[in-house]
Structure formats: C-alpha cells, structure tokens
Design a protein that fits this description.
Largest sheet: 3 strands, antiparallel
CATH class: Alpha Beta
Radius of gyration: 23 Å
Number of domains: 1
Distance between the termini: 41 Å
Low-confidence stretches: none
Structural class: alpha+beta
Oligomer: single chain
Length: about 100
C-alpha cells in the first residue's frame, strides 16, 4: 500500500485492489471514496501518476516474496538438529 496527499486530496494505491481517492476538505474522515468518478478523474490521474513515479509494486512484491522464502528456509534449517539461542548474553546470566 502506498498513498499520497496533495492539494486537499488523498490517493491510496493497494496492489490488486481498486484505488481510493478522498476529498479531505469535504470528507476529513475519509468515508466517501470518489475514485472512478468523472468529476475527480483528472485529480485521480495526476495523483496516480505522481505516486507511481519511480515505484514498481510488482517488483516490490517479488522482492518481498523472495525475502520471505529466504527467511523461511533459514528458519526451517535452524529447526533441524541441536538448536541454540541467538540471544546475546555476555555474562552468562541466562543458561541455555
């Protein structure tokens, strides 16, 4: 999820979901999504374009999934054989 606030509007982009656009002046509690309406199309396009500049949500998803797979592999590997706590205990106060 990523969002941008400009000129009294807030635009929210969530990958694989419909966009959200709020007129914060008329709707400060963000209860009325005005995305997709003809009267707000130019604001929506402007905010969407600015938000997506330099942002690739598909690449971000790919990197997150890769990181999760690596951490899951490490976690599963550490569960095999004898385990030892990784807690730092320089004075040996907490025996394992």
């Amino acid at each position: 999820m990523r969002f941008i606030r400009r000129g009294g509007y807030k635009y929210v982009h969530v990958l694989d979901c419909e966009p959200l656009l709020f007129d914060l002046g008329a709707d400060p509690n963000e209860t009325a999504n005005i995305a997709g309406r003809t009267e707000s199309a130019s604001v929506q396009k402007e905010l969407h374009d600015e938000l997506m500049r330099g942002y690739d949500p598909q690449d971000l998803r790919r990197r997150i999934m890769h990181s999760q797979q690596e951490r899951l592999l490490i976690s599963r590997s550490l569960q095999k054989g004898a385990t030892r706590s990784w807690d730092f205990d320089p004075f040996g106060k907490f025996p394992l």
